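Encode chain A's predicted structure.
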Amino acid sequence: MKRIGTGWLIHGFAALHVATVVVCALLGWPDSVILTLLTMVLTVLICQRRGLTVEFTAVFVVLVNILGYVLGRLGAELFNFPSVILNRSLATFLTTEALGWALNLFARTYHLPSRNRRPWKENLGWLIFAVVAVFALRVFIELFLFRKGPFQGVDVVAAFRSFLSNSLVLLLMLIGTLLFIRSGHNRHYSLDVATIGTTLFIGLISVLGALLHTVGLPFHWTPALDPALLSRNIVIALLVEMTLFGFTYMVEYAVNIRRELGTQRERRHLAEYRYLALKNQVNPHFLFNSLNILDSIVQDGEQEEASRYIHKLAGIYRYMLQHDGEKLVRLGEEDTFVTMYFDLLRIRFPEGLSVDKDIRPEDLSRMVVPCSLQLLVENVTKHNAISAAAPVVIRVRTDGAFLTLENNRIPRTSPPVSTGLGLPYIRKQYLDISGKDILVEENDDTFRVRIPLL
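Encoded structure for chain A:
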């Protein structure tokens, strides 16, 4: 059976919200509990579909219900249709659609890959706690807060506006919330400890915020403390803090996810690049050619030449081992390495290959990705037919910002044996490390690659 799309799921729950409002109004029943249940089910379904963690799903259960209640109440007052049912139905429908699509957009953007997610059953207590907290809050609001509690006969909108206008109190609550959430990310608490700690923190900072606002800080000081006013401010501060906590957790979560995915991408690209560089040096063709050349030198009795060849070959592998795991090396080291590699190529191609280097001395201390220049040289030998009749000239130069490798093109008559991954891997490395891209320019006669000097 085909699964219902997320868009249709949101539309369906918006329609169920409207049907609940209409039916309960006609029967004279309160609709708050059913609407709360529908909103929580929609939130959980979207979060589960998009791969959010259970902890973040719990936060969204609280946040979406608070925002849904506030926006629904405010929306109903904005419409001026004669029918109260119509006003509430429109407000409920638009609120559900807006929150559903906003949640879906966020979840699609900041989800964890499946291999990084922990099973929901490991932290299901967070979700149960959130559901119970939302129901308790909704019952408290409906049965106590506005009927016979401290808000009886009070302009609720004016009370909220007064609290929200106290910018210093809001700023202190936000800073405290951010510090609490960040400190929790650096420690690993059990579910019970984390739940109790979060509850106590929200309660404590709500009471402190309400107390500061009630006594008039920072704008004026009121020594006499009104218990009824303090009670109202505590309730308002609690709702505000729960919203602040949800938004702050959401932003912190999004930043951490981006950082984690970015780190994983860099590690993957670095591993691929190292594999490619190592493969180019230990592939059978390279070893076969190198050993054949060495055997030829030995057979000719040129012991000193054979010794120099062995030392250069060893130097190439030594460089690879020394800089394994490093993201950047100095251009001077890379130049020394590539010079040894050029020397081996000259023995392999005694005629038809020449190198013209113009590297500024002041650029030798700049940084490049290890083996990037060598891979570019290897790329030239793979894609060009090198012969005395049609020589290939490799030109290497720097200008303070880029290192440029350029060669004339002598295309092979048969396609080269190549994976086509060299340039993409080099590009990934520079983008991951510095955010700078390599520049590739080519025409029928010339191939040019420019890599940033970091």
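DSSP finds 14 helices and seven strands in the chain.
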